[in-house]
What does this fold into?
Amino acid sequence: LNLAYWQAANSGKEEDYDKSSSLELKIRKIYSNKGDFAFLKNMKESGQIKDQLLSRQLLVLYNSYLPNQIEPKLTKQLVELGTQIEKNFSTFRGKIGVQELSDNQIREILKTETNSAKRKEAWEASKQVGEVVAKDLIKLVKLRNEAARKVGFDNFHTMRLTLGQQDVKEVDKIFQELYELTNDPFAKVKLDLDEILSEKYRLDIMGVMPWHYHDPFFQETPLVLEVNLDKYYEGKDVVKLAREFFYGIDLPADTIIARSDLFEREGKNPHAFSSDIDKEGDVRILCNVKNNEQWMETLLHELGHAVYDKNHDPKVPYILREPAHSFTTEAIAMMFGRQSRNAGWMQEMLGLSASQKTEIEKVCSQYAKMKQLIFARWAMVMYEFEKQLYANPDQDLNGLWWDLVDKYQLVNKPAGRNKPDWAAKIHFTIAPCYYHNYAMGELLASQLDNYISRNILKEENPSYAGEKKIGSFLKARVFEPSAVYYWNHMIERATGEKLTAKYFVEQFVK
It folds into this structure.
């Protein structure tokens, strides 16, 4: 299945997506076995399993079987509709007039174009896929809810978090704390940003609209500060840089890169992901690399996922040979992704002068704070929208989307706009009820970074480049244990304390 999905994402061909869909159905059929599930349920409820490794395997298996205890017809509908929507995403190209544009081309316009009308056209082109997939996506949401109710949950959102060993109320509490802690700092950053953009595009500050930011969802930091980091990566081979970096921290990625597909072409999935094909060393990433800061970050991010999977202890049982939780692998990916904007890292990896480093450092702290605040607020939109989407998919979703964008991102809604802009976000299809894990990953990334800086490298704001101790620490405390421990137990063993927001706040908010 993993190989078939990889092939489909690379080719965009219908027959490859059909093969992937067919294989997913076969695997779901295994997990839908009533006799096996009854055995697992009995074992879980009996309390007979005392051995830690067996108990963890039982929990992982039980959580894999439970959502598949639905009739084959519904399973088939879920898989086929999900595959169809994803194929539409992979092959769709937005248009300005009759000109088709790739995702990278739209982003380039939003980064560089100064004409507001042309920016608006590009932004609207980025949303066109939403109108193509929205009806099917709502249908998929309802099918997912139907499946969740059949196995005892209120809706799919609650089921996904529960089976991921997370409590909705606990996650709500984390997000509420983040909302309150970031409200004033974000409002100030947003006002400063809008003042810069209004001057750049010669607008009244109230005229700053969604297309004046530098990505379609305002989830990334506009390149408005004194230093445009892209210029340092122009003419550089970001793949080579990533290879050298991971080798230098004793987490070599050569075999990963050799198996990967890294560059843009027609029909290929326009996004990026990492895939552990067999849990035995075949790990690869898909990217659409350009030599700029965004793709340097993305490459470091995806290779962060990949080296985590590559370095699971082969002695760990197969069922547990995966990250402790999806957000713990996000944390590693984010921690490495942050290096693309680390002045010390850039100096060492790009051969910059001391004056260039100083120039970058002037804005790096401001840039990082802006980036993290912007992303935290964006993650709040995604989490809250998805929770309400599954609670009531028949409500006015277009209106709900813009209400949340206004509340959390302070972004103006275009007058009279009533289109399914929310549906243009592929994550609702391929990673449902997952986005909160990115925010929790950022919290853990800061916690790990704090521990590495203070206890492993014993220096403030280290560059990471060439520091083999980093790889040794991560392999021993995070990667090799795999999913042997409950995620918060793993974090406590690695850093001395359970997951906390205090290091994220200390790093980016105060």
Remarks:
- The chain has 22 helices and four strands.
- The two ends are 46 Å apart (CA to CA).
- The first strand starts at residue 94 and ends at 96.
- The mean pLDDT is 94.
